[in-house]
Amino acid sequence: MPTPRRRLRVKSDPKFVFLNIPFDLQFEPLYLAFIAGLSGFGLIPQAVLQIPGSQRRLDRLIELVEACRYSFHDLSRVELDPRRPKTPRFNMPFELGLAVAWAAHMDKKHRWFVFERRKFRALKSLSDINGSEIYVHDNRPIGVLRGLTNALARGHPGQPFLNCNLSRR
Predict the structure, then answer these.
(1) Residue 46 phi/psi, 5° resolution?
(2) Whole-structure pTM over 0.90, yes or no?
(3) Does residue 109 sit in helix, strand or coil?
(4) Which of 13, 72, 95, 96 has the fewest CB atoms within 10 Å, i.e. the most exposed one?
(5) Residue 149: is it exposed, middle or buried by C-beta count within 10 angstroms (0-12/13-18/19+)?
(6) Which residue would you say has higher pLDDT here, 165 or 130?
(7) Domains in the chain and their CATH numbers?
């Protein structure tokens, strides 16, 4: 008989935002732009790395997504791992799938947003999200800030609202 899943005690908050982004040194300028931009909207970024414990990572991911009103998914680093065997990394799209399923079936208030470094790249690798807005950041912090502003300026119910649109420069 399987052991029942032990629930984490993650406090839910309508200002919590799940960040599905790379956490390596190469991505640091964009990571900081995500943190600064979301904080500027009064939102509180959350990441699976912050939850200590021996519970498996998947359970922590699910519970963290459940605790957040929004989720931001950067797919710009979905690529082949250069180390042998050269293998694609699917963690980012998988976590996006968890958030999409959560929003569709459990919490209609959850909003998810997809970021990418190049136009059409995400649609080529993940065509199932065709018809969804993809925010292109051009691998630049100003692009992340522009994308966040455009995403959060849409005025979804219960969403932070900023009455402006930053066009590409």
Answers:
(1) -130, 145
(2) no
(3) coil
(4) 13
(5) middle
(6) 130
(7) 13-152 (3.40.50.10140)
